[in-house]
Amino acid sequence: MLVEEVFEGYKRQFIETGEPVSVNFRTLVPDMKSKERFTHLIHSYPAKLLCNIPYYFLSTTDLFCPYEGFVLDPFSGTGTVLLEAIASGRNAYGADANPLAILISKVKTTYIPKDELLDTLSAILTRARRDHSVFPPDEMIGEWFSESTINQLHRLEVSIGKVRKAKQKDFFLLCFSNLIKKVSFADPTISVPVKLNPNRFAEGSERRESAQFRLKTLQDVDVYDKFESICMLNIARVDSLKDLDKRVSAEVISNDARNLTRHLTGGELLDDGSVDLIFTSPPYAGAQKYIRASRLNLYWLGTKESAAIRGLNDKNIGREDYHRAQTLQRIETGISAADAVLENLYSKGKAERACIVGTYLNEMKAALDESYRVLKSGGYMILVIGNNTVSGISFNTQDYLTTYLQSKGMHLEFKLIDDIKSYGLMTKRNKTANTISSEWVLVLKK
Ligand SMILES: C[S@@+](CC[C@H](N)C(=O)[O-])C[C@H]1O[C@@H](n2cnc3c(N)ncnc32)[C@H](O)[C@@H]1O
Fold first, then answer.
1. Residues with CB under 6 A from ligand 1
2. Which of 45, 53, 96 is the pocket-test mutation for ligand 1 (most atoms within 8 Å of CB)?
3. What is the reported pTM?
4. Is residue 323 located within the same domain as residue 396?
5. Domain boundary among 239, 262, 285
6. pLDDT at site 188
7. Predicted pLDDT of residue 436
8. Residue 110 near residue 167, CB atoms below 8 Å
């Protein structure tokens, strides 16, 4: 069956039953089973979108977006949608509030010839190995890396800084960032930096011994060697982009979904009605700490001041750290079902939770307004989103966002639901994400 017919079937079923159509994206797109696809694995990041989902929608001819049309992901994270868009022959725009995410998206969608990268890599390593400068003590990172690692990271940072070609410099900065957690004392199984603690595991257990061994080897690790291996893997990944259609390209145009500019440098706004399709997986309220999770990476990528990190966090929709004074202001969203939940939270003395989810919804409304503005009339908006539970109360984010978009005149074509609980893969995420157990795909038309 043609994929267009499958989507027609979803639409019919949704109209007939009024219920979201149950799907499993991992099995729907069987030819995506192999894990490596282009540059998707070039850098880790919390809550990446399953690439099967945009791939599936974009495998239609012109149902959702014509070839060489424009797809926008206003919360583009690591650029999963951007890459699938260019791989399917569409242009892509992205926006993200996290500079690390912007860097990943750019590098992920930029082809650079292998030979050029190999030459530059060799120059970077030679310069770094010859450098004997010492990094001045800094409390912020002293506890996360050994002294020898800090000095090697510093020399690599200086050496990469000397690369003149901007695209190449970004590529090596990304590989450098990829290295940071691997040579730090942070627990590799936790997304936000938390010190690896062998005492968490039972005495004499294999896990305790392996944690102790890891901490010992990290005292004296050859950072340059590790950097080189990461670069070699990523050079091969970037090389896989060489056969993509050269008529289309991807660009990150903004660092705030609420203000979509033509270019990342700011200035003029992206034109009204200039985008064919919006495809995004927005943040959830309080579910992922994107800036905190990237803190060590951002430090080595140049954001060394805590105030600058706080500034980035304040722009992050879904953040959960508010001053007490902020939590005392009563929030309303104008979405009655959500306001009823807020009322319930206030009545139970949970003003902080109410502030987190209420601010989240109001900021998401502003972002959706901006997406709506740039979407063509007749264009689709596809949102992949879960629900969370807040202080034991279900917070039906997908329902509130649907209601809001309908109030703007958008038509709900259909909803899909993917029960991610059943994969048995999501335990870690469920823990950090307040038991997000289903993912919804909302398909609306302007
Ligand atoms: C669920 S993630 C997107 C993941 C992405 N689809 C991927 O596959 O990597 C949500 C993203 O929204 C970003 N974000 C939060 N607030 C934002 C804002 N005001 N403007 C743009 N992006 C924002 C976060 O930094 C995060 O990268």
1. 45, 47-49, 75, 77-78, 80, 95-98, 101, 256-258, 281, 283, 290, 315-317
2. 96
3. 0.95
4. yes
5. 239
6. 92
7. 55
8. yes
| Total domain count, the chain | 2
- Whether residues 71 and 146 fall in one domain: no
Last residue of a domain, one of 188, 204, 239: 239
259 burial class (0-12, 13-18, 19+ CB within 10 angstroms)? middle
Find the 258 Cα to ligand 1 centroid distance in Å. 12
Find the mean pLDDT for residues 358-368: 97
d(CA 153, CA 132): 12
DSSP letter, residue 198: G
Range(s) of the domain holding residue 10 = 3-110+251-445
User: Structure tokens of 396?
Assistant: 């039906």
Within 10 angstroms of residue 164's Cβ, the number of other Cβ atoms is: 7
Q: Is there a contact between 266 and 336 (Cβ–Cβ < 8 Å)?
A: no
Distance CA 340, CA 331 (A): 11
Best probe residue, ligand 1, of 39, 57, 72, 75 (max atoms within 8 Å of C-beta): 75
